[in-house]
Amino acid sequence: MLPNLSHSTSGAVAHVPVMPVEVGDLLEPRPGDTIVDCTFGAGGHAARLEPLLRGNGTYLAIDRDASVAGFYERFAASASVQTRFCGGDFALVLRNMASTGARAEAILMDLGTSSMQVDTPARGFSYANDAPLDMRMDATSPLTAAEIVNTWDEREIAEVLSSYGEERYARQIARAIARRRASRPIERSADLVELIRSAIPTPARFGQGHPAKRVFQALRIATNDELQSLRDGLEAALDVLTPGGRIAVISFHSLEDRIVKRFIRDAARGCTCPPGFPVCVCGHQPVLRSLTTRAVVPSVQERCENPRSASAKLRAAERTQAA
Known about the structure:
With 323 residues, this protein is of the alpha/beta class. It contains 13 helices and 9 strands. It folds into 2 domains: 4-116 and 226-319, Rossmann fold, CATH 3.40.50.150; 124-224, Putative methyltransferase TM0872, insert domain (DNA polymerase, domain 1). It has helices at residues 20-27, 44-49, 69-78, 90-99, 115-118, 145-151, 154-165, 170-183, 189-199, 213-224, 226-240, 254-267, 300-305; strands at 4-7, 13-16, 34-37, 58-63, 82-87, 104-110, 241-251, 288-290, 313-319.
């Protein structure tokens, strides 16, 4: 997700969504459409997309983080179309929509964390502030990052850090975690950052980026089961999109983008019969048409104005007529 929160001249916090013009151009919502915003956040993209419905349509906002309620209420109060809010994992909401026959012409997924989460120290998402190791997007979820580092098997932790954080020193860090927790629990972010620094070689502490960045990313993904939610959400979105409907996904790291890229590629593929077959027997038809040959990235100007947008990649596709 990671849209930025910048401060206006009056000191008020202003929400800055990533690539809002590009999202609007690719989704191309029309009057009467239903837009599903899978990660509403502070409503930055909603402010751009809702006016495109020109007073006729529905805007469905989804978010698993209950703290966005105030942002949604302000958005709904000024919207000129019907609005609804659904709290929870967007994959579950989309699946429920599909099961009830609900359909939409436009679906937006803006993945990852929001600035509200990262910039609220008590949430424990940031390695820059000392806070409890929480990292839950949904505060009612039972699993926290602290539980992972203090109770999961050392090999499981190493796998999480390697797979979700692409951390080069995953085994060393997992071993250090296991040693430290044997004497006392690791409950705060500052303790984990100190442990990471001590577990990796000295040159790596001064390399590109903060040495705890990949570990915190991996723990956050595991805590919120983000990648499985993305896979399930993409599958459910196919059943919700109307023929001609469009989906746009903004990702912020290679793991997410790889999943989105492969999903669109596979859904856009036609016949899957072996090359030697004289005629098609599989009957497979493309269910998506890619709208982005390559991932769309923020302009130089946007990256300068909103540094947190630098790693963003946007991909989009259109639902075909195939059942």
